[in-house]
Fold:
Amino acid sequence: MKQTLSLLLGVVLAASAFGGDSLGTLTMTASTTGPDRYADGSLVLAGETYLLVYVDENAAFEGVRTDGTLVNTDLNAIATTGTATGDARCGMVAIQYPASLYPSAGQWALVLLDTRNANGVGGLVVGVSEVTDGVNLEVVKNGMTPAGMSAQTGSGDGLTVSRQAKLPDGVTAPVISSIEPTAAGANIRVANVAASVPYDVQTTTDLATGEWSVPDAGRSLQVATHGVLGGSELAATVTAPAAEARFFRVVINAE
Structure:
């Protein structure tokens, strides 16, 4: 009997099988060579989170919700988590598990999250790496004796966050409840907010262009890290260049 593992683009996986007449318990390690990046091109911050996800046979990785849970918990399972090191890559992650827990017909995915907020990392998930095309990019089979592999595929660049996290069910549209102009920008309050959703405050000086930008302190606002007034509003103090007319809006930073 053999154990089959799947390799993702920019991901290094290693596995060993132990046992007499059966596979018994398996030990697997995972890491990335890096540098791994967020969708805006910046390097992944130390302490950022990776998920090692098992994908059932004939299924696909269906993404992560903003609260860190998987979209499809029936066919996808988080085996363990990893952490980004100071050189923008996933440090070594190791798990040991019964061979029957994650059958060899399935696939493995190492998923990079974007959990940045005003305090660094560790907030709600606003983006994940796209791993669907990388699954089964290369397959390595391990025999009964302790064996390992280390391989790199693709260009050598690391994982990159490239798609938004998914929203939980029942999320309502946010609204700006008040704006207080300041010399540097505005104090803004946002109503209809939820603790499991990240919000962006955006601004423009010309509605006709349809071009909006996120001012300082307006990105990935989260109830959990900014506090709530009366249990229903979120506060933000944003800075923006002076202009004769300036417009603001609030959008959900997820899909």
User: Anything to note?
Assistant: The chain has two domains: 3-164, 175-252.
